[in-house]
Fold this sequence. Notes:
Elements: H1 2-41, H2 44-47, E1 49-52, E2 61-64, H3 65-96, H4 99-114, H5 117-144, H6 160-184, H7 188-196, H8 201-211, H9 213-228, H10 232-237, H11 255-262, H12 272-306
Antiparallel strand pairs: 1-2
Helix pairs in contact: 1-12, 3-6, 3-9, 3-11, 4-6, 6-9, 7-8, 9-12, 11-12
Amino acid sequence: xxxxxxxxxxxxxxxxxxxxxxxxxxxxxxxxxxxxxxxxxxxxxxxxxxxxxxxxxxxxxxxxxxxxxxxxxxxxxxxxxxxxxxxxxxxxxxxxxxxxxxxxxxxxxxxxxxxxxxxxxxxxxxxxxxxxxxxxxxxxxxxxxxxxxxxxxxxxxxxxxxxxxxxxxxxxxxxxxxxxxxxxxxxxxxxxxxxxxxxxxxxxxxxxxxxxxxxxxxxxxxxxxxxxxxxxxxxxxxxxxxxxxxxxxxxxxxxxxxxxxxxxxxxxxxxxxxxxxxxxxxxxxxxxxxxxxxxxxxxxxxxxxxx
Length: 307
């Protein structure tokens, strides 16, 4: 038996090495292709908001600060929407939904998590953006325009808010799947113990959610990592404008939408491709850190549950 295990490990090891080597190779490609813009602009490529393409290389200047800001800003909006949605959905499916309905709700959530993002994007353009503009943006601007977040007039509706809301809807099934599984894994004896102390259903839910708090954190963090890297749907609803603003109704850019919109003609210019690779390198780093943090929290919680 020991001999077979050793042989199996030797067989699987090349695949592990291949995956790791592929990851390192991807990182190396991004770093190598980012070097020209680093030599020209230095770290200012991350600290300035400009995008001046020119046929003469000496007149080219690039800064992706607005894209970094847009990625983080829209992802934070998405998480603020996803957190209550995913928590409410998970609790309802496990504790309140009838058995006949529960399975269909889980299937529906899984189907939504697997839908192509272009489906969400088209729906966002024709349904979500006009709805938000009419019901949310215009009234808030009319009555709260003195606030910086509501000061920008919602001319088209394509904005940070539209992108954030769409992302929140997109990643909610993903986060709810993680939270739902963790909530369902709580031993039944814990529930019995809570109810035996005279706790109401609402109090019991609060206690049980507190027990899976690390899993909730990991689900939200992983959802954030997925939201910050979304491309197609965001490109359709964010407005794609180099506008660095705190206003929710202002159009903007994200790193993903910037790459998607500019990469087609980037080869015409000397430094644009390198600037896009530098932007992708930031997204690579953010996604790596966020996903590692989420996986770490989820693994730690699972280890505690097994104990």
